[in-house]
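Q: My labmate handed me this sequence with no annotations at all. I'd like to see what the chain might look like in three dimensions before we decide whether it's worth expressing. Could you predict it?
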Amino acid sequence: MTYDTIILGAGAAGMMCAAHSGGRTLILDHAKAPGEKIRISGGGRCNFTNLYAGPENFLSQNPHFCKSALKRYTQWDFLDLIGRHNIAWHEKTLGQLFCDTSARDIIAMLTQEMQKTGAELRLKTTILSVSKTATGFAVEIEQDGKREALTCRNLVLATGGKSIPKMGATGLAYDIARQFDLPLTETRPALVPFTFPDGRFTPLAGVAHPVRATANGCSFDEAMLFTHRGLSGPAILQISSYWREGDTVSLNFFPDTNLYDDLRARRKNDGRKNMSTILGQLFPARLADHMAKELNLSGNLADQSDASLQAICTALQNWYVTPTGSEGYRTAEVTLGGIDTDALSSKSMMAKSVPGLYAIGEAVDVTGWLGGFNFQWAWSSGWAAGTHIRENLS
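A: Here is what I predict for the chain of 394 residues:
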């Protein structure tokens, strides 16, 4: 069977590419249904983009690489698309956009867009091998116990990264990239909870509090959640992309409060209250008890000198923790790193040294923040590759 384009991976980027590539296109995936990562995202409602998506929201060894695709296919373009499909949506915090009803609406929309272009979708299919031919590529697959040899002019790597292996995530895109001598950057779990030894935070599991989390010069102001294994929540997931093993994370529980002046005012009016009670006015009860023990606080607020209050404030606004690790790819929302952008055209996503070979989405060394940015990269990079393929076919 000969195709103009074969796309490996029926996720967000692969489906977007198939919807724009034109010609005879085949999209392959090992899963039972397309868009599985879309389906589970955002609590089943898919945080499909962000109103503020821009190059500054992405990590890469080349921070300029993502600019071209993001500029040519923006969040507003994707909003136009879902508007044409009458998908209702709403904004949550920080520009995050979600479906009103179900993430399945996005999958159905992409499936319909693929059908308009005549793209063929094959599921429950295993990729056995990929090789270069004189006119393009050969792909050997297995489906329903039968092997089949396929050929194509263009091959698109859209199989994602290593995150969430229980959904079948593998390093296939990286393996194929190595086969064609495309360089890779270091890969590691990103947007992932931190772990700590000896159940340090187990008594606080389920407690949440807003913080400013800082590591390696980067900061995020969002909620933090204590878990049985350690720390999670949006602030922690965000900063995990900037953290490395052995690094210390600074947590500011009151980033926008003049805590020292607040405590001095409380001392004047509530001086007879003990310190545990005062902390109970600032924190959830279990966290207040924990911090009172952590800071070795005793006595009443009136007993605390200005220097003592300053020391308490410093501790609460610069609480340092050193994670022993993260929960790894098992729960990581994305993979940091991937196929080196130096090997790709930022306009077309095609490999510079292998004409007809494209890499898009999470497989590439472009990783977004939490909040819909990674989906926007999938839409933008998939569109860039798909439109380039279509233009070259005509």
